[in-house]
Amino acid sequence: MNLHEYQGKSLLESFGVKIQKGYTASTPEEATEAAKKLQSETGTEWFVIKAQIHAGGRGKGTVTETGSRGVVLAKSLDEVPEKAKAILGGHLVTAQTSKEGKKVNKIYIAQDVYYPGDNEPEEYYMSVLMNRQTGRNMIMYSPEGGVDIETVAEKTPEKIFTEEIDPKVGIQAFQARKVAFNLGLSGQAFKEMTKFVVSLYKAYEGIDASMFEINPVLKTSDDQIMAVDSKVTVDNNALFRHKDIAEMRDKTEEDPTEVEAGEVGLNYVKLDGNVGCMVNGAGLAMATMDIIKLSGGNPANFLDVGGTADAKRVEQAFRIILKDGSVKAILVNIFGGIVRCDRVAQGVVDAYKNIGDIDIPIIVRLQGTNAEEAKKLIDDSGLAVHSAITLQEAADNVKAVV
């Protein structure tokens, strides 16, 4: 589950990570009140206004309705409402969104932390994630902050460092010191960075995150170390342990069809193809997607109905798939182990009758328990449903209709 910047920052702060202070707003009037409150608490004279959407590159993105950037600077309280109005309610297009962009329902009013002082502010990149090659968590960091880490990896890979954490002992003080050293820090900034790294890793473990990305981590002109941005992803499988974090979910940032599928217990991911898939089991679903590609089509979705597929569940799955107007055919590929094939077949027939007006081909391959009975149900239904026995036969049927 992805979190907004302000949500991620609140979690980081609860673990002792120093953050750029700020408040959220949903209207220009709320933005002004947030700025006033922030000014009274921090003394800041300038205010950073950030669109809150689940996408990176907001500072370079554009609000289509107004031409405003997704991150802007207000140099006085008087500028706050106008600049907030230019972002709120608009659609922000970034390198990580569709061409339509994402609607901005909320903004974050943050303090200016690039204030003048004895030293120049410096930006670093830092993330915490799983190294899947070793099965250990690791901290990835770079002195090149504020830019895409992919660009750094391509042009100056020697500036990317990693520190793996032994799960038996957790992060050690010497590892935090090593991070600060590799970033070229000394004195007070060195001490602040070691505290930051330890707190950041404890936060990552404490909320069962699957990824933290802080870009940039800022060394201020007076040698404070703080998170200016935050991208936090929490492991969905651990949300039962974090009811408070689960309540932070913003469904408006997710694909509405995927949300609907999740609410009825279906594992659904929308893709950009033309053949809908309905399968039981993740492995078989992946194989089915390969079959579709080999047959000349492109999968329009990943949909796992699970091992308890009955007539109602199959009908729900059909309705979900048919919401995608780009689907030109549907391939149902079920292996009857726990689930009986005849129940799935009955679900296909019932769904076809209940939904009505299905004007695209449906190819059904059922193998396993009661497969023969299932095929007979399909063949005797009189509906425009094509039954298949083998994977090759299913692929040939797909090829014939796409």
TrEMBL record:
GO cellular component terms listed in the entry, alphabetical order: cytosol; succinate-CoA ligase complex
Cited Pfam families: ATP-grasp_2 (PF08442), Ligase_CoA (PF00549)
Gene Ontology biological process terms, A to Z: succinyl-CoA metabolic process; tricarboxylic acid cycle
GO molecular function terms listed in the Swiss-Prot or TrEMBL record: ATP binding; magnesium ion binding; succinate-CoA ligase (ADP-forming) activity
Record bears the keyword Metal-binding: yes
InterPro entries hit by this protein: ATP-grasp_succ-CoA_synth-type, ATP_grasp_subdomain_1, Succ-CoA_synthase_bsu_CS, SUCC_ACL_C, Succ_CoA_ligase-like_bsu, Succinyl-CoA_synth-like
Binding-site positions, substrate: 280, 337-339
Residue ranges of every copy of the ATP-citrate synthase/succinyl-CoA ligase C-terminal domain listed in the record: 278-396
Positions with a binding annotation for Mg(2+): 215, 229
Keyword Nucleotide-binding part of the UniProt annotation: yes
Cofactor note: Binds 1 Mg(2+) ion per subunit.
Keyword annotations of the record: ATP-binding, Ligase, Magnesium, Metal-binding, Nucleotide-binding, Tricarboxylic acid cycle
Catalytic activity: succinate + ATP + CoA = succinyl-CoA + ADP + phosphate; GTP + succinate + CoA = succinyl-CoA + GDP + phosphate
Record-listed ATP binding positions: 50, 57-59, 113, 123
Span of domain ATP-grasp fold succinyl-CoA synthetase-type: 2-217
Enzyme Commission number(s) from the entry: 6.2.1.5
Pathways per UniProt: Carbohydrate metabolism; tricarboxylic acid cycle; succinate from succinyl-CoA (ligase route): step 1/1
Cofactor(s) the record lists: Mg(2+)
PANTHER family tied to this protein: SUCCINATE--COA LIGASE [GDP-FORMING] SUBUNIT BETA, MITOCHONDRIAL, SUCCINYL-COA SYNTHETASE BETA CHAIN
Record-stated family: Belongs to the succinate/malate CoA ligase beta subunit family.
Binding partners and assembly: Heterotetramer of two alpha and two beta subunits.
Function comment: Succinyl-CoA synthetase functions in the citric acid cycle (TCA), coupling the hydrolysis of succinyl-CoA to the synthesis of either ATP or GTP and thus represents the only step of substrate-level phosphorylation in the TCA. The beta subunit provides nucleotide specificity of the enzyme and binds the substrate succinate, while the binding sites for coenzyme A and phosphate are found in the alpha subunit.
Protein name, per record: Succinate--CoA ligase [ADP-forming] subunit beta
Organism the protein comes from: Salibacter halophilus
Higher taxonomy: Bacteria, Pseudomonadati, Bacteroidota, Flavobacteriia, Flavobacteriales
